[in-house]
Structure formats: structure tokens, C-alpha cells
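Handout, section 4.2: multi-component inputs.
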Amino acid sequence: MLLRRTLLGAISAAALIASLGAASAQDKLYIPMISKGFQHQFWQAVKAGADKAAAEFNVDVTFEGPDTEAQVDKQIDMLAAALAKKPAAIGFAALDSQAAIPLLRQAQEAGIAVIAFDSGVDSDIPAATASTDNLAAAALAADKMAELIGGAGKVALVVHDQTSRTGIDRRDGFVNRVKEAYPNIEIVDIQYGAGDQLQSTEIAKAILTAHPDLKGMFGANEGSAIGVVNAKKESGRADLVVIGYDSGAAQKAAIMDGTMAGAITQNPVGIGYETVKAAVMASKGEAVPTNIDTGFYYYDKSNIDAPEIAAVLYD
Amino acid sequence: MTDATQSAAIAKPKAAGAQQKFLAFASLIVLLIFFSLASPNFLQTSNILAILQATSVNGVLAIAATLVIITGGIDLSVGTLMTFTAVIAGVVLTYMGLPLPLGILAAIGAGAGCGFISGSLVARMKIPPFIATLGMMLILKGLSLVISGTKPIYFNDTPSFPLISTGSLIGSVFPAMPVPNGVLILFVLALFIGWILSKTVLGRYCYALGSNEEAVRLSGVNTDAWKIAIYALAGGICGIAGLLIASRLNSAQPALGLGYELDAIAAVVIGGTSLAGGRGSVLGTIIGALIMGVLLNGLRIMSVAQEWQTVVTGLIIIAAVYADMLRRRKAAS
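Output:
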């Protein structure tokens, strides 16, 4: 008796919460977005852009992503559930393009337009891709680094991972630019910290210990960049030039107090907005551009408050 | 006395398990009815198959975890062991270009081998299972990255490999029921392990070890050897999970797997297996895994915000274990 009540209680609690979430009407266009993540501020900024477009075009948007960027199978399950809801179009940022192809093909057969965002999908199924050119953005970071350390000396990279598209592109964009344009700059180490602030801090400290004459460090995403900043503070290396990626309150503060020279920012709000906009257009049968470059900027103390920069930074 | 302890240990799970299983089954049905009413998109063949497909990997891992948990142990390495065996399959099939059956054997064999090591650490070296398998979890996570060269290994050279999970034997006989092979494998495995647990000596010792290991040892049984055998069996099952996930993704993803052990343990616990050992069943575990799969899919279909999905899953786990405790307290009084 008691047991049954307990279980039923739990289930009705679930029902209650569920009904809170599913209040919106059915007749609007429905566009689920399956992202690569969900809890990081970056993805929340993408979601904010998507919500903005949803309000503007009067459509329903939901936003989901797995807990970590390693969980390829969980993302596939999310995509399957999203397709079961028979949406008008779908926004998708693939963790692994190949693994998603069968479901995307299913979407294509069902006439559901697929808009890729962030890192894109290696396939011709998506009607459009809204993303940052990470190679070019990281090359810009390399140019700024060279400028700040006087074109010569040792630098190191802390990158979030070596398997994802963004990790690979940002690393290669930086490294290749240094190789082709700055022969006197030596890249002494590249380490991976899973975008975890603590792990990246330890990694950056170890690199600083190993290379006392290191001149600069590039953190390839928000967590990596914060890690480098922490390591710089803890090791008391005030002369180290740090260049980060993305934004967030801690990174903005580090730029304001001079610990970090500057950072590359993508336009996450723009990624979310453009994805939903393209999805709406595609579901109405309108033509959409295949590649939507959502842009990137280098920002530092001097332009952090400029309107075009401030608009794309998040806390 | 030892005889009595042993037979009591064996008799108990059957008698007591039935009610919990019924309860778990009833709540599964309630969930299904609830979501069917809540969304017209829920109860479609394609979505039900998607739920089963999504449950297959966690279900297989949970079966492995069930075996170890019944002995009173815990296996935290099931998730990364799955990844490790997937990578081994990738190495054998893609890097070495060997035929498919060898890849399957290698994955299951590597799993059993790692299980054997975990079991030896626990049984012979007396390292607590939590610590031994925590160590294995990290070792295997690292080795998966090392062996794969930190990048996914694709199975494009073995076109039949994805069929292990996504093909449909049942569908080729009954076209109306395209049940993916991954699901078929889960249920066949569940029947097989259920049979081992209830009908074989290995199964009986599994329960006996979890109930009163000392008594079993004193009655002259080589408990270490049996325990190692159980860990090895669980490891081999993780190898099957590795094949399922790799064939579903058509790739061995070396960074994946951390956290999957908790999903597996949650399914085991929802299914009424006691973390204290000596009690539990594969059927319960399968129902537990299905409850988690249905819940997650249903909440998604209803477009519940993701942060709430996690909250609800946590509530369900606590509710299930609390219900189980109440029942046991009542049985004891």
C-alpha cells in the first residue's frame, strides 16, 4: 500500500513538473535544438539567441544537449526523441557526424529540415550550417600573441580536447599560423584539460614549471583559459602573456585586471539566432545560405565595452 | 548451520524479489500510460523502438553490474570497460583489418580479462571492490585514449559491423516489428544470465557470497575463485555492451564511458537489487533500465526542460529505493 503510494506520488510529481514544462501550444512551428552541451555559459548564450529568434518569429524552440561532449550516444538518443515529435525543422550540433547520419537521413526522408550549428555536420543533409570559423579565429589569436611577445619566444597551448572539431581547429589554427608566419616563436607544449578549470589550472602550472622562460599561453576555450589565468596567478608569473577564448564573468574580469591580455570571442547569441532563423526559413521552403558565418572578434581592455563586442559577450 | 545459511540465502531472493519486481513493473506500466496520454507522439512504434534501442547499452551494463552487486561488491569500471572493449574491437577490425568474428571475440575476451583482473584485486588482494574498480575505471579510461590515439576509430572497413546493433533479425522475419538487434541481444542476454543466476552453481554462489561470504568460505567453498569468475563474467558482458555501443555509433569513441556506471547502478537499484548484496534479479534490472529509458524519452517527448529531467530521474531513484526499504522493513518485522 505504502509503496504504491510512494511510487504514484513520485510519478505524479513527475507529471506536475512535466506539465509545467510542456505548456505551450501545438499549432506553432516547433524547432528542437540538439546541442553539444547545455550547462556551460556558452551554450546558454546560444540558447538565449535561439529564444530571441523564437520570440521574433513566433515559433517554439527547445534546447537540449548531453552533460559532456563525450556522450555521443546520449546525443543520438536526444535526436531520436526530437524527431519523434515530428518537428518542422531541427537544429543540430553534432558531437560525431558519422554516428548521427542514419537519424539525419531519417529526418531528411520525413521532410524535416536540418540546420547544423556550432561545429557543423560532415554531410550534405543539413540545409545550412551556422558556425564560427575556428581555424581563422585561432589564427587571429596567434597573430595577437606574436604581437604581444614581440614575435619571438616560447609559447604553450592548453586546449579542451583533441577529439572534437573545435578543439582540433583551434589548436591547428593557432599552431599553423605560428609555423607559417612566426619562425622565431617556438610552441613548446600542447596539453588537454577537458575544458575543466581545475584540470586546466594544474596542467598550465606544470607547463610553467617545466618552462621558466615561457612567454605566452593560449587557452582554447573558456575553461582552459580560466585555468591558464589561475596558473599564472598561483605561480606569480606576472610577465606571462595570456590569450583566452570565449567569454564568461571570470575571463572578462581577468581581462579588466590585466591578468589576461585579451581573448577571442565567438558570437554564441548569433549562432543560436541564425540557426533558428534558418530553420524557420527552411521549413517554409525558402532558400537559405549553405554557410552562415556567425563571426568572431578579438577583444581586450580597450574594446571590451564597445557595443558590437559587449553584445556577444556573456557572463 | 552453514547449510541452513546457504539455503536461506538462496531461498530469500526468490520469495522477496517477486513483490519488488511487480512494483517496478507496475510503475513502468504507469509511466507508459502517463506518457501515452501526455503526448500523442510517445506511443508510436518508432518511438518505442527508440526507447528500447536507447536502453540496450545501459541494460547490458546494468546486467553486468547486477552480478557484481549481488555478491556484495560494486563495479565502477563497467562504463569505461565498455569503452575499452569498443576500442579493442576497433583496433582488431579497423587497424588490423581482421574479420568480424575475431573483433567480437577480442572485445568480449578483453572485457572478461579486465573483469578477471578486477576480481583478482578484490578476491585475492582483498582490495575493497569500490577502490579496486575505481582504479580499473581510471586505468581503462586512460588506456582507451592511449590505444585509440585519442581519436574515434571508425568501422567503415567492416560494413556489417553496425548491423550488430542496428540491423534487425526480427524485422527480417516479421517486417512489422523491426526490433533492432541490440534490443534482441539485451533480452537474450538477460534470459541467459537470469538462467545462470537461478539454475547454476555459479548463480547460487553469487547470492551466497553476497549474503554471508564467511559462512560460504567456512563450508569449504573456494570463494575467491567463484568471485573472480563472477567479475570475469561481468567483464565479458561489458564487452558485449562495448560492441553494442560501437556498432550503434559505427565508431569506438575513446572519451566516452565515464558516468555510465552510475546509470547502470541506478537501473540495478531501481530494479530492487540490494546494494548490500545477496538479493536481486536480472528481470528487476531490465525493468529498472526500461524505467529510466522510458522516463528520459517521455520527458523529452513532452519537451520538459533538461534541468528538470535530471531532477525527476533523481527523485525516481530515491523513491524506488525507499519503497524497497519499506517493503524489507515490513518483511523483517
